[in-house]
Every structure is written in C-alpha cells, then in structure tokens.
Amino acid sequence: MKVTVYSAKKYDQQAFSRWADPKLDFHYLELKLSEETVSLAADSAAICAFVNDDLSAPVLTALQAQGVRMIALRCAGFNNVDLDAAKALGIQVARVPAYSPEAVAEHTVGMMLALNRKLHKAYNRVRDDNFALDGLLGFNMHGKTVGLIGTGRIGKATARILLGFGCTLLCHDLYEDAELKQLGARYVPLPELYQQSHIISLHCPLTPETRYLINVDSLAQMKENVMLINTSRGGLIDTKAVINALKSRKIGYLGLDVYEQEADLFFENLSEMVIDDDVFKRLLTFPNVLITGHQAFFTEEAMQQISQITSDNLVAFDKGTASGNELC
Ligand code: NAD
C-alpha cells in the first residue's frame, strides 16, 4: 500500500525504516499537508500526518477525490482533524493513542526543574566563567502544591513523578482516577486548583471546551508568581493574556512546549529568517520563560512506539481489520 508521509523529517524516515512493516510503501514529503500540497498524495491509498498538518474539510475532500481512504496520524492529539467531515467522506482516521506518556511527563517535569533552578541561565553563565549565584535562587519542589489539569495517560505519569518529589497534588478532570486518589492526589474544582497551586501543568486535550482555558479570568484566580507549564496544545492558552500576566508578575515562570501559532514555526530551522510573529517574539524576551519546539514526545522509546503503532494501523486498514485505534 502506498502511503504519503507529510511533514516528514529525517528522524521520521529513520524510525519508519527501523520499526515499520517493510511491506508498506512510504513516500516521504517534507512539506506540510495543506490545500496547496494535497495533490502530492495522488495514487496513495493512505497518508500519514502529524500535529500541524491541515486536515480540515476542504483538504479531506481533496484527499478523498484523489482516492485516499485512510489517514494514519502519527500522534495522539487529533484537534487538527475535522472528524465529522472525514466520517461523511468515508475516510478512516486512526491515531497513536498512547506512546510512552513518560516521554512527555519527563519533559514536563524537566521544564519545571529548569525554570525553578534556572538551569537555562546557569548553563550560559558557567560557559562565560561566571560562577556567581545571584539571580539563580530556586525553591524546593518538596512540599509544593502542583495543579494538574487533565489526568489521563500523561497527566498521570506526571503525577507519579511529582509524588516522588513530595509534592501535594490537586487534580481536575472530567473523570477521577481511582489509582491517583489512592496515591494521595485530590480532585478539586478548577477555582480551588487555581487558587492553591504553586505550579499548574496542562494535560487535557484541545477541544472547544478547553480552548483558552488559561485566560484573563483563570489567571486572575492564580497565586502571584505561579509557574505555568503547557506541554499539551498551544490553544489551551490565550497567549496575549499570559504575556500581560508575565508583565504584571502574576506568572513567575512559564514553560511552553506548544504554542497556539506553532504551525508557522515549529519543526523548522528558521534561524536565517525574519520571524514576524510579534507575540511569540515577545514571549522570548522574558527571562522567566522557557520554550521548547514541541519536543516533549521526542525520545527513542516514543519514536519506536509511534512508528510501530502507525504501521500496525496502516496494515490493519490494508487487511480490512480493526486496529482499535480508529477515530472514525
Ligand atoms: P488522554 O486522553 O490519556 O488524557 C486526557 C485527559 O484530559 C483525560 O483524562 C480527559 O478526561 C481529560 N479532559 C478532557 N477534557 C477535559 C476538560 N475539559 N477538563 C479537564 N480534563 C479534561 O491524553 P494524553 O495521552 O494524556 O495526552 C494529553 C494531551 O497531551 C493530548 O491531548 C495532546 O494534545 C498532548 N500531547 C503533547 C505531546 C507533546 O509532544 N508536547 C505529545 C503527546 C500528547
């Protein structure tokens, strides 16, 4: 089966050639999927897409007209897919629901530690032979209250690490996790989580309900100097409201692995380009902001699981069987 892989980087090709079924005929394109690039998937029965590919109704309609019958997402989130349109067009969409949630959880906690202990500054200082400690004062994680919004696979893996540090955990989710409660986490309404938490970390999906969950109102309820971490999806945060909260010192630390306009920036080397996103560039001016370019998932273990499960989804479709990972 011919599969056109959009947004394909060298590391994607390496992972598929190591771990995917060799019978699948992958054609790699560096380009993102969009209305302009959809024709490049001609003759493919399936395409493989990633987080910033455009899977809106017009693109899906064009894919279907070319004979594409299956979309294999090589990610967990599917907020970029118009599932109703895919269903109506008879296109199957499958994803990789779980791949090493620890990869994202460990990056999340890594961001907390880096911001708290100012490792990003210390790294540069020591390279400059500057061994002064002024400005590097941190706080103990032990005993701090961390609010987790979303306690699915990644939220739960993050919770386990933080419990090891001796943090108090306040959680919010549509469903309570019995195991987390047994471990000592407490589920609370969002206002209580906002008011009590020293650190707030987002692990819920981007849906119409969670879009701009972090906004002027929710920020107003948080502690002064709060640490906010988002490794989930950029659209959970109203970035302009967050910039104002950084300026007023309401937010003391901000860690982002995702950004609402990341599709124009992330996964590319733009170091020779002029970036005209003034909101993003303003974020980079704050000394207490740490941004990574959607790399939380990027471990050897996760890449192995992503390519194996994507391959299994494609093979199941080709055989006419169910993988269990179908969204429609
Ligand atoms: P999951 O489905 O296992 O868990 C999501 C949890 O969020 C569920 O428990 C769900 O009930 C909860 N939830 C849904 N709506 C909510 C709401 N309105 N309020 C509170 N909780 C709500 O998903 P996961 O595997 O833990 O992934 C979480 C998110 O992380 C994904 O949606 C994806 O966007 C993001 N992600 C990011 C990366 C990265 O590299 N940065 C990698 C993988 C996933």
From TrEMBL:
User: What EC number(s) does this enzyme carry?
Assistant: 1.1.1.28
Start and end residues of each D-isomer specific 2-hydroxyacid dehydrogenase catalytic domain: 5-324
> Any idea where the D-isomer specific 2-hydroxyacid dehydrogenase NAD-binding domain is?
109-296
Enumerate the GO terms in the molecular function aspect.
D-lactate dehydrogenase (NAD+) activity
* Alphabetical keyword list: NAD, Oxidoreductase
Q: Which InterPro entries match?
A: D-isomer_2_OHA_DH_cat_dom, D-isomer_DH_CS, D-isomer_DH_NAD-bd, D-LDH-like, NAD(P)-bd_dom_sf
Give the top-rank taxon of the lineage listed in the UniProt record for this protein: Bacteria
One Pfam entry for this protein is 2-Hacid_dh
For this chain, the family text in UniProt reads: Belongs to the D-isomer specific 2-hydroxyacid dehydrogenase family.
Q: Which PANTHER family is this protein grouped with?
A: 2-HYDROXYACID DEHYDROGENASE HOMOLOG 1-RELATED (PTHR43026:SF1)
Q: What protein is this chain from?
A: 2-hydroxyacid dehydrogenase
Q: Which organism is it from?
A: Alkalimonas delamerensis
